[in-house]
Write the structure tokens for this entry.
Amino acid sequence: MAFCPRRPPSSLLVGLLAVTLTGAFTPTTAAAAPRASSGADRSRPAPDRAVPDRAVLDRSVPDRAVPDRAVPDRAVPDRSAAAAGGERWSIDLAVGGGDDVNVRSDTGLLRLADTRPTRRTRPAALAASVAEGALLAPARTLAGPANRIHADLTAETPAGTTVQVQVRGARSTGWTEWREAGGAPAVFDRPVSRIQTRVLLTTRDPKAVASVRAVRLTADTATVAAPAPVAVRSYRVFATREGEVGGVTANGHTIRPRDHFVALPSRRGLAPLDSGDYTVRVCTTSGSRCEYAPVWDVGPWNTRDDYWNPAAVRENWKNLPQGRPEAQAAYQDGYNGGKDQFGRTVLNPAGIDLADGTFWDGLLLTDNAWVDVTYLWTGSGPRGVVGSGPLNIRTGPGTSYATRGLAATHADVPIQCYVKGQTVAGTYRTTNRWNRLAGGQYVSHAYVSAVYGGTVSPC
């Protein structure tokens, strides 16, 4: 298993700047390749032959604008305020269940349930001496479209603790990234119809406990420049294997052997539990293997480095080129004194962490490596939700075609068009429709639970 600071890459980074591990955040070195003797490994199917084909194009499941994972609204409405400069409501701070991670409600206050920094109370990919927890409020449908959200937070934050309020908005093409809405409001580039709120608590001192008393939000409209059309963002970054089986990810998922997800060093693209609202396509540099995987953890190294965003949007390290992770700049060029945001010496240039199944089975990697990552939520167009996976990606519309990777359960995959091919009986339907993805690759539509973001046309 691997903490965020992995062993330095073997032959891939010969000649890069060597750094020395110092300080109290000394990481655990991890092996990158699976052991043949592992009982868990033997029980899993070989990735190229035994992974079931799953694909299903959407006739029996109606299209949805955004996959609706919200439970009944826990917010307290104040609709009368909409006519007086904005719609206002308060978040119910009662802890609701699986999407709420390491938090508890006590006498009307929201606090961390466990303030000790362990592998179950911090992002598994991070390995920093910080405990955190999050309350995820249900999505709220607004009375009318809005593009500016302001959060009024009432909280006690002793030294060493923080509380953040983050929001995201839903449009017909999917969710925006999460944005902070505390001191300054979150402003989206176009109006949204639904809002979801996340309250994040952290502490670096197990004896210091932040308490949240109230979170009140206001939604209104601000004048913004019309967004310029941009292509989906894709960058080459260094990937490390996360491991950490039994640990808990930032969205509350307990990591299983041969799991399929990724970690990015920013919560702006962190998907809620069992969703692929933020999905990446990660490929070997040769393009011979790819996996579509949801972003379920935060790390490696940093938690505020949305390096795929331009400087005007990027949360920190705005003077770095877009697409260059802070850890890469620190490792290669001594940026930030060669340290991450926690003051740890950066031991590799990782900009993404891969769960074991993504690393070994999806990409067939045996060591940490450079990969090409596409941050799919930065694009648009129809998306299919993989309801049952991991799912083989094939070079043609049938099981006789070669496999070129996997699509993880819950991944949201962009669909270019569909063709007719081999009939497949899957989890959601029996169909001869196959979805064509990027690069002329296909998945059978029998395992896609929903389609949103547009209509899928014949190729």
Notes: The chain is about 5% helix and 35% strand. The radius of gyration is 22 Å. The mean pLDDT is 84.
